[in-house]
Amino acid sequence: MNPTIPDLRQLRYFVAVAEEQHFGRAAARLSMTQPPLSQAIRALEETLGVALFARTRRSVELTSVGADLLPEVRRLLASAEALRPLAQSLARGEAGVLALAFVSTADYGLLPLLLRDFGARYPRVRLQLAEATSDVQVEELVAGRIDAGLVIAPVPPRHAAQLAYQPIAREPLVIAMPSALSARLGGPWSDDWHDDPVSLRDLADAPLVVFPRHLAPGFYDTIMDCYGAVGLAPLIGQEAIQMQTIVSLVSAGMGVALVPQSLRHLRRTGVVYRPLVGAVPAIETGLVWRSAEVSPVLAAFIEIVRAHAATVGRPAPEG
Question: Is 158 found in the same domain as 305?
């Protein structure tokens, strides 16, 4: 130990003598004899280079320096005593930091549910949240800058050996369209969800607002497959990298968009969400993380994710 740094034992002795104002009583409280206690206090004063006590044959009193130092020493000791329970909490995943990224589609259904359940069970964990597209999340994971991400499947094959993936939920695509277009197709003018399905054939002339393929190839290809299944090639009107922006473009009358069903919770004036006719592909959202680096906090979050995946009818994989 560095001789210029007091140890915790010396600090505890200092507090005992300061509170008892008597070496004999302090020694009895500490279950030790008086001479070693006096020696330890002398050593502490020499280490600090100040006198902590004014001594007489009958009493001992704190100097002004000692009196000012006492509350600081008490705080140091309290912090030291908290180290063990903190370490145990960290080891159990009950405390710490979790850096989590998420795609914008998760913000309207999946993410709030996971955060609610995780926060209720692990209130001492501090979450660092960031919205990012799936491709950005994978690069951030590989670089070690985030702990996990909520992505749209699939995970790029080139990173499959480094990353673990847990499917969570699948949801059908629905069409987001301007209210005026919905009304012309027999729907409402009101901005909300409308149960009457619509065929993409009825929207063949409407421009499509979509994610760029290089940012979300799985999502993009699923949308293209929807059009291909009815013999159409969509007219790409606008591209945007955020779901909020895509829906805003629909609201402005710039086209229609195929979006996950949970996005109907994103209300925008001038936008109606409607189901599609026939069999509709589903978008899968899952959690991805570095398989070789699972901290206790991350393991706790994965447990919450797997429990949620089981409740929506998808069994959690082993391992």
Answer: yes
